[in-house]
Specification:
This protein is α/β, with parallel strands linked by helices. The chain has nine helices and 18 strands. It has helices at residues 15-27, 41-44, 56-59, 75-88, 178-189, 200-204, 215-226, 274-279, 318-341, and strands at 5-11, 31-34, 93-94, 97-105, 109-117, 123-135, 142-143, 156-157, 170-174, 193-198, 230-241, 245-250, 255-259, 262-265, 269-270, 283-285, 290-292, 306-308. The strands form four sheets. Strands 1, 2, 3, 4, 5, 6 and 18 form a seven-stranded mixed sheet that branches. The chain has a seven-stranded mixed sheet with strand order 8-14-9-10-11-12-13. It has a two-stranded antiparallel ribbon with strand order 7-15. The structure holds flavin-adenine dinucleotide.
Length: 342
Amino acid sequence: MSNEILDLLIIGAGPAGLSAADAAAREGLSYLVIEKGTIANTIRQYPVGRTMFSTPNELEMRDGALKPIREKPTREELLSHYIHFVLDHDLHINTSEEVIDVQGNFEDGFTGRTRCRSLHRDEHDRTYRARTILFAIGAMEFPRRLNIPGEDLPKVHHRFVEPYPYVRREALVVGGGNSAAEAALFLSEEGARTTMAIWREDWENRDPKAGAMKHWVRSPLEREIAEGRLRVILFKQIDEITDDSVKLTTDTGEPKTIPNDVVFVLVGSDADLSLLKKLGVQTEPGKLTEVPKYDAETCETNVRGIYVAGHFTHSLHIKAAIDVPRKIVPIIAQNLRVAIRR
Ligand SMILES: Cc1cc2nc3c(=O)[nH]c(=O)nc-3n(C[C@H](O)[C@H](O)[C@H](O)COP(=O)(O)OP(=O)(O)OC[C@H]3O[C@@H](n4cnc5c(N)ncnc54)[C@H](O)[C@@H]3O)c2cc1C
């Protein structure tokens, strides 16, 4: 363990962590970002070639810096923007290193233990000391499961990356949100014989504030259905997945077996709040799932010196993940200056 004590340890190099690192550098804080995957790991895991919902001004790290070819950037354009932002500003980020434990308190300082994994697969642990910690860990840790027989078969995936291996295969997508709808559309357009299993309330939901499918996803999806390439089944439950079929119960209670080569279960994901809870951070029910409790102005939790920002808080989009650290890191810097003077 080095003797240095960082002003701010940031966990996660998604948009929130990158924005926090940039703000910390501007404030002259000693900081380090620890990222278990790669820079902007969540965006790297989007489907290949995916066009973002958001416009450049909601995604970019500096005004006018993100210049997509079309109106909205693709996954690749956004990823490249974030990576070059890190390189150009020489932000302090360790990748392939996971924070596995955090202990301590504001008065004595916090200690973060990490596990580093090299590309050669050797592992070693490190320890860092920090006055404050910002959790920017996102909400992708645990993809939700159906918990049914057959869900662990190799043909079942809880993330969708690309349609190309499934041309002329029988594909089933389970889920009612934008990710599921986009995957079904992408598969169908690229020649997979696609079925989308969706709950009636999701299919009939037209309210964007209640998480309805974006209209620019729904319209082409409905075109695929009208042209007979995509089938929608309103279902009550998926009962079992076997090597060559899926058994489900329809919305009207009938059992149905459909031939199947690949299943995508895209029903959301949850954050891993275990490190926060171990530190004593309280949680509360959020719009979709459990979220940490924090001060609306400072994003400090009930544990002094522990802050939160990004997708696992009440703010679900990239714009807030970037804006919030810009607001709170100067507050963290000011609090540290006051504490040091005492
Ligand atoms: C398919 C898809 C499409 C989306 N499209 C849009 C869109 O068009 N517009 C929009 O605004 N939002 C979109 N979102 C949501 C967007 O991805 C999130 O709002 C955004 O990634 C939040 O940024 P973040 O920094 O809070 O979290 P993340 O980007 O998830 O970053 C968190 C990081 O923390 C790391 N991490 C977690 N735990 C640890 C640990 N213990 N140690 C070290 N590192 C850790 C993770 O590896 C990850 O890289 C989409 C999401 C998905 C899944």
